[in-house]
Amino acid sequence: MDCDIIWRFIMARKPRIEIGGGLYHVISRGNNRRKIFHSDADYLRFTGILELQKSKLPFYLYAYCLMPNHFHLLIERCDDSISRIMQRALTTYSQYHNRKYRKIGHLFQGRYKSILCQSDRYLGELVRYIHLNPVRAKMVKRPEDFSYSGHRAYLGLDKSGLVDTGPVLRHFGATGKRAVQVYQQFVDAGIGYQSQEEYYRAAEGRVLGSEQFLDEIKHRVGEHRIARTSKRRSIGIEDLLRAAARISGVRRDELCSNSKRRAAVAIKEAVMVLGKENGMSNRELAAALGLDSSTVTRRIDAVRWSGRGNGEVAKLRRALKSETR
What is the pTM assigned to this prediction? Predict the structure, then answer.
């Protein structure tokens, strides 16, 4: 394992690190490691709850595996917090389970665990790791033989739409058929690997990534706290849009559309970055710019991760900030 992979406690039993567009490996176990799924109906009820929550609190689900006494999820957060999503899902399933089996008390062992992961570095590895859980546990010989994981969706054997396979498969090939073949080869190559503890440890508040990733997270968490504690905004969305049109020359109708023209994309990214700094939600920015929330999340992250914040977008952001004072 590369030496720059780091595991650090950011906080001990304090609020979780919640970042829009963050990739989270979520793990929860049954209380005292007891079973949480006893029948096919239980597994299906849980996946149904996940599907319902996705429709109410949108998020991307790239992988999941429901083992008899614990489960893994790989979630990319959009607007709503992982805490809110999981609280709803676990509460709903616990109520169903305890009612069905006439139990009382806690079904799950303490708080669920979540690990914020560096997406570009670990997305594929985590998808493979999670989907090979039943093979490592010797429940099946091949991951596609296990019905309650997301692996079958990648092979086209599960058409439910619960798993968002597209973003992952694009890492494996330009065309759908070729991408599936390469993905399957990648997963099969992991059969026989021993459990990789760095993907599995779930201590509260841990981050999986490079030193650079950790520094970026610290910076973003700080910005997030400042935005949340601000009592009022200094800039409104209309102020930003008017200023953006003035300084860029991009017409308002193009600014508020899905235009791919370079000038329009750059000024919209500057609006997103400055809007986030002033406490605006992804939904608000998406509605104003004629995009969806997930696109806003991805564009903001692209600016931050790629270093484009030091170039054209940064200059436009400074001009916007000056124009709206």
Answer: 0.67
